[in-house]
Amino acid sequence: MEAPSTSQQHDRRSRPQESTGGLWDSVKKAAFVIGSGLFFLVAFRNSVTWHLQRFWGASGDFWQTQWTKLYIAFNGNEAALFIFGAMLVPTFFFWLVNAFLMVVDTTGKPSVITRYRIQTDKNNPVDPERLRQAVKTVLFNQLFLSVPLVVLTFSLMQWRGEPCSPELPTFHWVLLELAICGLLEEILFYYSHRLFHHPTFYKHIHKIHHEWTAPVGVVSLYAHPVEHVCSNMLPALIGPILLGSHLATTSLWFTIALLVTTVSHCGYHLPLLPSPEFHDFHHLKFNQCYGVLGVLDRLHGTDDKFRKTKAYERHTLLLSLTPLTESIPDPPKKSE
Predict the structure, then answer these.
(1) What is the pLDDT along the chain (336 residues), one digit of tens a residue?
(2) 120 Cβ contact list (under 8 Å, min separation 6)
(3) Residues in Cβ contact with 55 at an 8 Å cutoff, skipping those fewer than 6 apart
(4) Where in the cell is it found (predicted)?
(5) How far apart (Å, rounded) are the C-alpha atoms in residues 280 and 97?
């Protein structure tokens, strides 16, 4: 056998370094995403509180006062309060955002939104009948799977602590819990999602979700019941259960999780919103980009093809009004 050439030896030595550097790059990106989200959350909370106290005459701790009023309004019925906060509030925001997106998807208007479409040749506009079928499945999953799971979660959290404690947690503790919940979701979602791509499960379960190679927002919860429980719900539930989170934190976390997955599936790379390029590429190519933050994909090498594409270059926070499909266009297709 011939001895490996100098260039081959160099390639072998450089691969571990590239892998380590790539993983660290993904960790930094994940930290940036989580850190930025928490920073804006702090700024939003402080700003809203200040304005409410200044202009509406609120006194004392504004959020604690509002929570006390809500607690009294439910007359101590903590089960009803938990269902309201952990299920109805996040679901309201989910459908509020998706109602707007569905109008845009089916009408193709306004162009100020549609010009940011990622897969420019698809969903232009979305088939209304196909969308209605997706909505029916999502409603089924929420009513007959999500609601019972949230009820079960309340029982577990009552055993764990006081999810509806009269006293709110400190805001800094809420931020820490949100970060932990995000990391736990990344781990559980990545491995459960990748498991559903195994041929044994894909054909009968996960294929339903991948009927949409160009996803839209509401498709984020369009899934087989088994997948909805194991891959959509459990990764989001596990954090609050393990941490014994207060309902205020749980409600905020569920709302954020639903809005983030909506953005990831919406099909539009809009200014100042998290980039959906990563998960959009997953729907397009199936065997890449299984996670949420991308750290585990880099660790396991399941984003190697993605990192060679223009979509990877576009996978960044858009800070201008020019669509990234224009500033970083795909290479021209080769003529057959």
Answers:
(1) 444 444 444 444 444 444 445 555 655 555 555 555 555 555 555 565 555 545 444 545 888 999 999 999 999 899 999 999 999 999 999 999 999 999 999 999 999 999 999 999 898 899 999 999 999 999 999 999 999 999 999 999 998 889 999 999 998 899 999 999 999 999 999 999 999 999 999 999 999 999 999 999 999 999 999 999 999 999 999 999 999 999 999 999 999 999 999 999 999 999 999 999 999 999 999 999 999 989 899 999 999 999 999 999 999 999 999 999 999 999 887 654
(2) 325
(3) none
(4) Membrane
(5) 18
Write the DSSP string, 136-190: HHHHHHIIIIIHHHHHHHHHHHHHHS-TT-SSPPPHHHHHHHHHHHHHHHHHHHH
Residues 308 and 244 in one domain: yes
Amino acid in position 150: V
244 plus 144 within the same structural domain: yes
Provide DSSP, 83-116.
HIIIIIHHHHHHHHHHHHHHHHHHH---HHHHTT
193 located within any domain: yes
pTM of the model: 0.84
- 285 within some domain: yes
| Domain boundaries, position 68 | 38-74
Kindly state whether residue 11 falls inside one of the protein's structural domains: no
